[in-house]
């Protein structure tokens, strides 16, 4: 893979950042992170020229890299502060992970498809993004690493996974696309040990959150 980040790429990125500002992304740390992460390196080479359009693209294994707007919105809704422990479900290309690591969080990310897990962890390591990456089923979360300040789910979940709710700190925020074919992006706040507050943000479309690990 050609790992070049040229002035042209940087220019396209700052245009993308302006587009996100127009779409009401206001969190400076999110915009700075998107301005810094070389998204073109996270795509299959044939799509490189589209890397800085605000669109989702295939990344192999039937999956997609989320649209930059979606990555920005989810990151903004998480209200992360540097040093917080964040769990991501669905590492995919690793792009959302890189954005969160740029924002200074301690990132833990789970992917169920071994092919994507291997490719994205290698790329993130090569680019110097430090996080902890796991091949596993996001429905189970990471009990040994819990609790988390924030949890971000980047696949459409038919239900809110119970295990993930229990792995969220009191006061913590979970951002989850909820629904089967189409989803509503939900923001869930853990009020205390037993209570959660839910808010609907907007309609969205993610690939489905599936059970089990795919080893091939
Ligand atoms: N955050 C990714 C988005 C990838 S699409 C990015 O920035 O590119 C969603 C990903 O979630 C896919 O890679 C899919 O394999 C993964 N996924 C789906 N169900 C999962 C589960 N139960 N556990 C972990 N990953 C899952």
TrEMBL record:
Pfam families the record matches: PCMT
Enzyme kind, highest EC tier: transferase
Record keywords, A-Z: Cytoplasm, Methyltransferase, S-adenosyl-L-methionine, Transferase
Source organism (scientific name): Carboxylicivirga marina
Active site: 66
Highest taxon, organism lineage: Bacteria
A GO biological process held by the record: methylation
Swiss-Prot/TrEMBL catalytic activity: [protein]-L-isoaspartate + S-adenosyl-L-methionine = [protein]-L-isoaspartate alpha-methyl ester + S-adenosyl-L-homocysteine
EC number: 2.1.1.77
Family, similarity comment: Belongs to the methyltransferase superfamily. L-isoaspartyl/D-aspartyl protein methyltransferase family.
Subcellular location: Cytoplasm
Entry's transmembrane regions: none
PROSITE patterns: PCMT (PS01279)
Recorded GO MF terms: protein-L-isoaspartate (D-aspartate) O-methyltransferase activity
Role summary: Catalyzes the methyl esterification of L-isoaspartyl residues in peptides and proteins that result from spontaneous decomposition of normal L-aspartyl and L-asparaginyl residues. It plays a role in the repair and/or degradation of damaged proteins.
The protein's name in its UniProt record: Protein-L-isoaspartate O-methyltransferase
Primary residence: cytoplasm
């Amino acid at each position: 893979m050609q790992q070049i980040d040229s002035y042209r790429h940087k220019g396209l990125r700052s245009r993308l950042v302006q587009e996100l500002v127009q779409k009401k992304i206001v969190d400076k740390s999110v915009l700075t992170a998107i301005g810094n992460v070389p998204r073109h390196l996270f795509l299959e080479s044939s799509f490189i020229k589209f890397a800085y359009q605000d669109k989702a693209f295939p990344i192999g294994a039937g999956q997609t890299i989320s649209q930059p707007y979606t990555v920005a919105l989810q990151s903004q809704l998480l209200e992360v502060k540097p040093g917080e422990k964040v769990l991501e479900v669905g590492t995919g290309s690793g792009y959302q992970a890189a954005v969160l690591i740029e924002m200074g969080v301690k990132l833990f990310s789970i992917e169920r498809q071994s092919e994507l897990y291997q490719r994205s962890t290698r790329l993130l390591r090569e680019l110097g993004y430090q996080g902890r990456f796991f091949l596993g089923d996001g429905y189970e979360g990471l009990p040994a690493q819990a609790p988390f300040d924030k949890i971000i789910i980047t696949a459409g979940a038919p239900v809110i996974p119970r295990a993930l709710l229990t792995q969220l700190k009191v006061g913590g925020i979970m951002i989850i696309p909820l629904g089967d074919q189409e989803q509503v992006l939900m923001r869930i706040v853990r009020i205390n040990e037993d209570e959660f507050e839910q808010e609907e943000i907007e309609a969205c479309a993610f690939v489905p959150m599936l059970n089990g690990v795919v080893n091939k």
